[in-house]
Amino acid sequence: MKKYTEKIGDSLNEILVKNIDAQNGFQRAIDHTDNKALIHYFRNLSRERKEFISELQDELVLYGEKFKFSGTISEDIHMGWIDFKSLFTKFKEEAMLEEAIRGEKAALEEYNEALKSDIFPASTATILRSQRDRIQAGINKIRSMKDFALS
């Protein structure tokens, strides 16, 4: 049983860290644009990720596991990319949306891989599926913003 809960905890921690990275990325994106629609959108995504983080932390506690976070290399790379693009590109809002789409697709893949593992009890799998579906809806919205709001 302990090994089972550790496996769940490790998997949830990986997803949790990615959500913290995403929340931080959306917060930084807000600082790199004056576009009110983008500010509003990224603020909503940041709030959504905060909800995801809370839900995942609650699940960790449920299994007697602890949150393990020390930052990630991918966050540093991602944040550096946003900084670079926002400072040097003529179309910074479009570049930010493209990077957001890339990051959200990676998150979607992470959720799909975790759910394929079939290690989660039904209640945890339901939370993960719900979060994954919200990420997919967000990707669709980002694409529509890219196509319409910035033209």
Write structural notes for this entry:
By secondary structure, the chain is mainly α. It has helices at 2-31, 36-62, 73-88, 92-116, 122-149. Helix 3 runs antiparallel to helix 4 (92-116) and helix 4 (92-116) runs antiparallel to helix 5. The longest helix has 30 residues, at 2-31. The model has no long low-confidence stretch (mean pLDDT 81).
Oligomer: single chain
Low-confidence stretches: none
Helix content: over 70%
Mean pLDDT: 81
The largest sheet is: none
Shape: elongated
What percent of residues are in strands?
Answer: under 5%
List SSEs in N-to-C order.
HHHHH
Give the helix/strand class: mainly alpha
What is Rg? 16 Å
Q: Give the count of helical stretches.
A: 5
* Strand segment count: 0
Distance between the termini: 55 Å
Short description:
Helix content is 83%, strand content 0%.
Annotation keywords:
single chain; mainly alpha; 151 residues
Set out the fold topology.
Layout lengths: L1 H30 L4 H27 L10 H16 L3 H25 L5 H28 L2
Helix pairs in contact: 1-2, 1-3, 1-4, 2-5, 3-4, 4-5
